[in-house]
Amino acid sequence: MADSLLQHKRGPSRSTWLRARKARPQLVLSRRPRRRLRNLRWCGRRRLRRRLLQAQAAGADWREVACQVSRTDETRRPKTAAPNPAPSATPTPVSASSRPCPALLPIPPVRAVGPGRALLLLPVQQGFTFSGICRVTCLYGQVQVFGFNISQGQPAQDVFSTYTHSYLTINAVRYSMPEKSKKEIKREARTLLKSHLNLDDRCWSMQNFSPLCSIVLLEHLKTSTVKFITSYPGLSYIFTQESPAFQINSECLTLRSVGIKREKKKKGLLLSKSALSTLEELVNVSCEEVDGCPVILVCGSQDVGKSTFNRYLINQLLNSVSCVDYLECDLGQTEFTPPGCISLLNITEPILGPPFTHQRTPQKMVYYGKTSCKNDYENYVEIIKYVFNSYKRESPLIINTMGWVLGKPALAPLITVLVSYEGLLLLIDLIRFKYMPTLTPGYVDDKDGLYTKSKSKIRNQGFKLAEFAENLEFADEEKESPVVFTGHKLMCVHSEFAFRLTARNRELHNKILRDLAVLGYLGQLQPPVPKPLSPLHGLTPYQVPFNAVALRITHSDVAPTHILYAVNASWVALCKILDDVRGYTNGPILLAQTPICDCLGFGICRGIDMEKRLYHILTPVPPEELRTVNCLLVGAVSVPHCVFKNQHGLEGTIPYVTTDYNFKLPGASEKVGAREAEERHRGKLHPKAKHYRK
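The structure assignment produced for this chain is given below.
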C-alpha cells in the first residue's frame, strides 16, 4: 500500500522525460499537452524561453505559440487523476476563437531595426527592466519611466539605468482608446511608424500588434559626461555589464548594440503601496492647491530611499505641472550639484537617472564646504534662510533633508512627508532630533527647536513666526498680513529598499557617489559627442590674478603662509561676495570669516604661478559669469583620486602624486588618531600629498 502511494506521488522517470524532450521539434513548441510544464526548474524554463526566442527569430508567430502553451497547460490533469489515454495519431485541432489569448504576454518581443536601434512591443501592464543607457522614444501608445509618462509625439528622453541605483523599468500604461476598429487602429499605428521604420519592420510590428499595445524605439546613446566617467578604470561597470557567455542570444545581441541589457524585474525599482498612495495624494494636492503652492518636506533615516522618492515625485508632478522647485539641504548626497552645497532649483525636465547624470545650474546656490553640518548647525540654518529667500512660491516646493534619523531599527525604514506652507521651519526643528518621533502637528507645535521656540496656538491652530519671517522677503501683497503657520499634514511611507546597516559600507558607497557627482560636473568640460575626449591636463585653464579674488578655507584653520599650498590642486567654489576686493596691489587676499554668498560654479585650481601671481582655474562656468567671481572658497570636498592617478599621456612623475610621504608628521593625517591606518595605505594618493608648483 505504501509502495502504491509512493508511485502516485513520483513523477515520470528520467528516461521517460528525456525521450519526451527528444521527441519535441527543435524550434516550435509541441502542441501535445505536457504534465511537467509548470514544474520545470529554472534551467528548464530558461531553455524554454530560449526556444521561444529562436522560434521568433525564425519567423514563427510567438503570440500563437504562447496561446497554445497556455491552452495545453490548462488542460493538464492533476497527478492524482487517472492516467492519460494513449495519444491518437492525428492531434485534435484547437480553435483559435474558442479561447482568447491571455492579456499578459510572457515575453515582449525585441527586434533590431538598424545599427544601435531596437524596437520594443509592450502590451499593457507589462514592463521591460534593463541596465545601461539609451534614448527612449514612444512611437505609439504611452509608457512610463521612473514615474514620467512618455506619449507618442513627445520628444525622446535619455534614460540612465545604472548599477549604483535600482534599475529602471519601461512600463506600458493603459491609454484612452477611441471608438475605432482594430483595422483603423493598425492603420493609425502604421502611419506613425512610417517616418521611423522601414517596410519590413512596420510589417513585423503590425503582425505582433495587439490593442492597447505600446511601441517603443530604443536607440544607442553616448554623452560626453558618460564618456568622461567611463574613461577612468573601474568605472565602466556603472553603465554596462557583460552577460555570461551561456546567456547570449539574439535578443541579447540586439540590446547590446543599443547599449543596454535586460534585467530581472526584482532588480528594478519597487514602490510600496504606501509610497504609491502618498505620491497620488501629493500630486492631487499640488494640482488642486488654490491658496498657494504646497511645500513638501521629505525626511527619514539614511538609505531608506528619500532621494529616489523625490525623483519619482518630481517626475509625477511634471506630468501635471510645468515646473517644480527643489530645495537641496542634503550636503552629502546632493541631487543636481556637486556635494557640499545648499541650492534651490527650478526643475522643468524629468529626472531619468542618478545625480551624476543630470548636473544642472541652480537658481540659487551657496557652498557650505563640508558633507555634514555637524558642530556647525547655526551656519547651516543661516545658509538655508539665505537660499530660501529666492523661493517665489509660484510652483510646488520639495525639500530634501539629510539623514538625521538614527537608531530605532523598527522606525528606520520610514520616509516622512510633511506638507505645509512654511515647511522649512520644520526642517530647522528636525536638526536636533536624534531619533524619529511621530511628527504630528501637535508634536511639532509643542516642541522647541534649536533656533525656534514653540508658540501658543491661536485661531485655526496657527501661530505667528515673527522671528523667522523678519529675514524673509515677500511680495507687496504678502507683506500686509503676517506669516502664519497653519500646520502640516503628516504622511508616513514604508520603504522597501534594502539599505546598508554598517556605517563602513554606507560611508564607502556615499564617497563613491560623491566622486561620481564631481566627475559628472567635470564632464561638462568635454566637447560634445562625437568629438574625442580631451584630458583635463590638456585643457586651457583661466588665468586669475591674485588681487582679483579673495581666498578662504572653510573647513579648517590654515596658517596664512600655507594658504596657497591648500588651494593648489584643490576643488574650489567660484563665488561672488558683496565686498569690493579691488584696490589691492598684491595678493593673495585672505578673508577672516567664511561669507554666505552666491556660488556660481566650481573648478580645479590646476596650478599657481608665483612669478606672475596668477591662479590657473579649470572650470566649465561661462566666461560672462566668471567676470563677476571675486572669491574662491576651498572646503572638505576634494578632487577624486582617479583624476590625479590616471593622467594619460604623461611621462615620468605624475604631478600631484607621490609615494614618499611622511604620515607621522603632525597634521599629516586627515583624522586625529588615524595615522596608523593611513600608514597602511602608503603609495596611494593622500589629499595633502600635492606638489606645490612655483
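Interim note for the steering committee: The chain has 20 helices and 25 strands. Residues 273-451+487-493 form a domain with the Rossmann fold fold (CATH 3.40.50.300).
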